[in-house]
Design goal:
The chain is an alpha+beta fold. It is built from five helices and four strands.
Length: about 160
């Protein structure tokens, strides 16, 4: 019986740790305006076609401005002698702060450092060895809640070529 007395506290600590992890996971999966803004920004600077999933209906209906911007950036990069992937950026030190929020809308301020990311590992090596130009992002993104999800409804990002 004495040998179980040593195991019981350890078992209780492990169970408590598991319960805390499950609780933290549940909180982490909740969608917030900042997470939606960060996901949109990362997809935008990676020139991902999935960026349209983060746009509100109004921006999707206007005309395909984002696809047009991506095409123009790739065309400009080719004209300068680079590959289509040249305008891609990797974001570092990303900070997102909610400026205003209510039930259906929010404003999120994003600040980040960016490096060229022709290949996913390229930006990390540039950052590690402090090489290449570092660009700064400082934008305010307007968000709206549509169908239970936060969507971007106003942004003014520029692709760097």
């Amino acid at each position: 019986m004495d040998r179980f007395r040593n195991v019981i506290p350890l078992t209780l600590v492990v169970l408590l740790g598991v319960l805390v992890q499950v609780g933290l996971l549940a909180v982490e999966t909740k969608e917030t305006p900042t997470r939606a803004a960060v996901a949109f920004t990362e997809a935008f600077y990676k020139l991902s076609p999935g960026v349209a999933d983060h746009l509100c209906r109004d921006l999707l209906e206007e005309d395909n401005r984002i696809e047009e911007r991506f095409y123009q950036a790739a065309t400009e990069a080719r004209r300068k002698g680079f590959s289509d992937a040249y305008p891609r950026m990797q974001l570092f030190h990303l900070e997102a702060v909610v400026l205003a929020e209510d039930e259906t809308s929010a404003q999120v301020k994003l600040e980040a450092s960016m490096k060229r990311a022709i290949h996913p590992a390229f930006a990390y090596f540039l950052r590690m060895w402090n090489m290449g130009a570092t660009y700064h992002l400082d934008e305010v993104v307007d968000m709206v809640k549509e169908e239970g999800r936060w969507k971007v409804c106003g942004y003014d990002y520029a692709l760097i070529i």
